[in-house]
Design goal:
The chain has 208 residues and is an alpha/beta fold. The chain is built from 6 helices and 8 strands, in the order βαβαβββαβαβαβα. It has a single domain (7-55, 85-207), classed as Isochorismatase-like (Rossmann fold, 3-Layer(aba) Sandwich).
Length: 208
């Protein structure tokens, strides 16, 4: 599957805070960096995303005096899971992972920068109404096939893939270039992908 001029590699949240040693680490997240670098060499169009939270963000357990992972709060847009403080704006943990080598990336989309709303998806914030602008960028560039990789399968990659499909893009998740958090939530997300028409491939189909 040779990337076409209308294809884009969408690299989700490859940031130190999500890699081993970070406060919200995804197991083996660092292992996919070399593969993503190789994939990037095949795609003339690359877009990155960054989680980019202000202090006292709604998703931080510390904001509410609660426990990360187990506690939740109710937000206007629904139940908000609570996490350790992570990807604070302009900190090393929020930077693009230094080992990522994608110098030709044409856009970095920052999400989750509004204090009172979280944003898993690269396309819509968690109210499922507020756009990030990525959809418009891709349409203006006539980029119609999206190949997703990064972190994490059951959250930001997952919801980005679903929203991309709902916006009419053809979507492929490069399975071996993604890592997830929880096997059960990964299973649920995969079922949602299948229902939505998100296609799953392996990197070998691109790299040969």
């Amino acid at each position: 599957m040779k990337p076409e001029p209308t294809d884009v590699l969408l690299v989700i949240d490859m940031q130190p805070d999500f890699l081993p040693g970070g406060p919200l680490a995804v197991a083996e997240g660092d292992e996919i960096v070399p593969l993503i670098n190789r994939l990037g060499e095949r795609f003339p169009e690359v877009v990155l995303t960054q989680d980019w939270h202000p202090p006292m963000h709604i998703s931080f357990a510390s904001t509410h005096g609660k426990q990360p992972f187990s506690d939740t709060v109710e937000a206007p847009y629904g139940t908000q899971s609570l996490w350790p403080d992570h990807t604070l704006q302009d900190t090393p943990g929020a930077a693009v992972a230094p080992s990522l080598r994608l110098p030709h990336a044409g856009l970095i989309v920052r999400k989750g920068f509004r204090r009172d709303i979280d944003s898993y998806s690269a396309f819509l914030e968690n109210d499922h109404q507020t756009p990030t602008g990525l959809g418009g960028y891709l349409r203006e560039r006539n980029l119609s096939r999206l190949f997703l990789c990064g972190l994490a399968w059951d959250y930001c990659v997952g919801f980005s893939a679903l929203d991309a499909r709902s916006l009419g893009f053809e979507v492929f998740v490069i399975e071996d270039a993604v890592r997830g958090i929880d096997p059960e939530s990964m299973r649920i997300m995969t079922a949602r992908w299948d229902e939505a028409g998100v296609q799953r491939i392996h990197s070998a189909s691109i790299l040969g």
